[in-house]
UniProtKB/TrEMBL annotation:
<protein>
    <recommendedName>
        <fullName>3-methyl-2-oxobutanoate dehydrogenase (2-methylpropanoyl-transferring)</fullName>
        <ecNumber>1.2.4.4</ecNumber>
    </recommendedName>
</protein>
<dbReference type="InterPro" id="IPR009014">
    <property type="entry name" value="Transketo_C/PFOR_II"/>
</dbReference>
<feature type="domain" description="Transketolase-like pyrimidine-binding">
    <location>
        <begin position="7"/>
        <end position="182"/>
    </location>
</feature>
<dbReference type="GO" id="GO:0003863">
    <property type="term" value="F:branched-chain 2-oxo acid dehydrogenase activity"/>
</dbReference>
<dbReference type="GO" id="GO:0007584">
    <property type="term" value="P:response to nutrient"/>
</dbReference>
<dbReference type="Pfam" id="PF02779">
    <property type="entry name" value="Transket_pyr"/>
</dbReference>
<dbReference type="GO" id="GO:0000287">
    <property type="term" value="F:magnesium ion binding"/>
</dbReference>
<dbReference type="GO" id="GO:0009083">
    <property type="term" value="P:branched-chain amino acid catabolic process"/>
</dbReference>
<dbReference type="InterPro" id="IPR029061">
    <property type="entry name" value="THDP-binding"/>
</dbReference>
<keyword id="KW-0560">Oxidoreductase</keyword>
<dbReference type="Pfam" id="PF02780">
    <property type="entry name" value="Transketolase_C"/>
</dbReference>
<dbReference type="InterPro" id="IPR033248">
    <property type="entry name" value="Transketolase_C"/>
</dbReference>
<dbReference type="InterPro" id="IPR005475">
    <property type="entry name" value="Transketolase-like_Pyr-bd"/>
</dbReference>
Length: 327
């Protein structure tokens, strides 16, 4: 596979898994329905057929057992890639992830490595039922010992997953499920950006919009609308949630003087809170307005008919942009 004009995020992840498995026989894929079915989103389609049931493993419906088994395999030299079928299903495994996976390297004074990647389709916008549309990223980014990343396009989906698998640290790889079928250019011969760097998705001079995962597209749409009104908006795709590339955000804010942070997860104690605090400390004398945040409400994710009211959309982000520019 060489250069594609356009490819979906789902197919890019599939290609990334395939490339990692071809490069290293110790890479395993495991999870509920990942084999014969190819995953509920068909992201792992065809992998079991090509690599066999010993490397693409259909597991019982037991998230704690899946992650616990992956930890054991990692300790024996394998590189397991675990799929959690939906974001809200990860919580039975939360103890294994936080108490064991995140701690083992430090507990062993660096002598033990646990190269486990946990893929989590996250966030909403697909009209699903309860526990299928949650955004738990802040819960994992808070935990020392875990790295957390999330792509917003096919190229990042392809390269960031391979980088996560090749590393020796546990990585939570959040996949924006409502963007699975969004297409963008993928160059499989390119030199990828480092895993934990942010990127400037669109240059601008009046205000910085920083987002990640599913909200990057929303922010790009906002920037397009704002441009029609004569406003120049810079869009920063954070890409990595732990660690966060504060330097790129800081450099952008020093140019624009304003920052609006956008994510689907509730605003209360969300990723935006940490970024807002850090950038306020770093850029106090550059800021022309308070750092503003746009996100979900501090409430359980609603039924699908109310999704459009819950999710930050064009109008809510534009309102925050207008408020910041009004200072």
């Amino acid at each position: 596979m060489a250069v594609h004009e356009k490819i979906t995020i789902a197919k890019a992840i599939n290609a990334s898994l395939r490339a990692s498995m071809e490069a290293d026989p110790k890479v395993l894929v495991m999870g509920e329905d990942v084999g014969k079915l190819g995953g509920v989103f068909r992201v792992t389609d065809g992998l079991q057929k090509d690599f066999g049931e010993d490397r693409v493993i259909d597991t019982p419906l037991a998230e704690s057992g899946i992650v616990g088994t992956a930890i054991g395999l990692a300790l024996r030299g394998y590189r397991p890639v675990v799929e959690i079928q939906f974001d809200g299903f990860v919580f039975p495994a939360y103890d294994q992830i936080v108490t064991q996976l995140a701690k083992m390297h430090a507990r062993a004074l660096g002598k033990v490595k646990v190269p486990v990647v946990i893929r989590i389709p996250y966030a909403g916008g697909i009209g699903a039922v309860e526990h299928h549309s949650e955004s738990p990223e802040a819960l994992f980014a808070h935990v020392a010992g875990l790295k957390c990343v999330t792509p917003s396009n096919a190229s990042d989906a392809y390269w960031m997953l391979q980088q996560a698998i090749a590393g020796d640290d546990p990585v939570i790889y959040f996949e924006p499920k409502r963007r699975y079928h969004d297409k963008s250019r993928l160059d499989t011969e390119a030199i990828p950006d480092p895993l934990h760097t942010a990127r400037i998705a669109r240059s601008g001079s009046d205000l910085t919009l920083a987002a990640y995962g599913p909200m990057v597209k929303v922010c790009q749409d906002v920037a397009n609308v704002a441009a029609e009104e004569g406003k120049s908006i810079e869009v920063v795709d954070l890409r990595s949630l732990s660690p966060i590339d504060f330097d790129t955000v800081q450099a952008s804010v020093e140019r624009t003087g304003r920052l609006v942070l956008v994510h689907e997860a509730p605003v209360f104690l969300g990723m935006g809170a940490e970024i807002a605090a850090r950038i306020t400390e770093r850029c106090f004398y550059h800021l022309e307005a308070p750092v503003l945040r746009v996100g979900g409400f501090h409430a359980p994710y609603p039924p699908s008919r109310l999704e459009d009211e819950y999710l930050p959309g064009l109008d809510r982000v534009l309102d925050a942009v207008d408020r910041a520019l009004a200072y």
